[in-house]
Amino acid sequence: MDVAKMEFQNQYQQADQMPEYECLLFDLDDTLYPLSSGLSKQCTKNIEEFMVKKLGIEEKRVTEVNQVLYKNYGTSMAGLKAIGYNFDNDDYHSFVHGRLPYENLRPDHVLRTLLLSLPYRKLIFSNGDKVHVAKTLSKLGLNDCFEGVICFETLNPTNDDEGCSSTSIFDHSCLFDAEISELPVTPIVCKPFANAYEQAFEKANINPQRTLFFDDSIRNIQAGKNIGLHTVLVGTSNRTKGVDYAIESIHNIREALPELWEINNKDTAMGRTFSGKLLAIKTSVTA
Ligand SMILES: [Mg+2]
Fold this sequence. Notes:
35% of the residues are buried. The protein has one domain: HAD superfamily/HAD-like (Rossmann fold, 3-Layer(aba) Sandwich), CATH 3.40.50. The protein contains 14 helices and six strands. The protein is α/β, with parallel strands linked by helices. The structure holds magnesium ion (MG). This is Suppressor of disruption of TFIIS-like.
């Protein structure tokens, strides 16, 4: 086989192996806006304040307790519920997210143009509550770029503590040396746990094999990869296990994944339409 023919065949095989995406699934915080906005830092401060003021956790231990809960449970809230604290979900969200410096977020016209030029279903998949997601998208000028939002309330529709039946608080000191399997289970459904992804796929009618998932958390990315998603880690260019693509900023999508637009051209040429799917999802995803 001559070289030209081999090259042609390689190209053809690569194109053939490239998944045909139909959906782009985006985390929100620190993915669609940069960490430098300061929201994430303030969020951690607010969580720690909630833990001290509302739950009576010792101030000098609050940072380490929060870190270990976040590490083991995906979100601090999921961890707090798991170890036996009872509190109203909406109270928590308004305390923690209600006082974030949203004024630091500015309309992102570059991202908006990129998103609108991508002819795929686009959905938000966030552990955050619906008010926070809506406010953030609005500040970024991106509300109309997504056909649906999967957020805290989508995965945890009832605001009761039935799942959290323990009457005592799990000893904080045990948190630090416990194996994951020994830790109490959380009643909260959130990334990076498999049930969160499964429910999201079901509620939003997502086929993970045809979906590209963007998140700044390596843990969420690896969990997504394990469950069949194609993955883009945002915030770093270092690719590690479970990461199909790594980009410093969400603005780099076009450089990292030009094929997303090439498929656009191909599909347009073939007269393929996406509008039917867009309509279908609007009614099935609540946020
Ligand atoms: Mg994030």
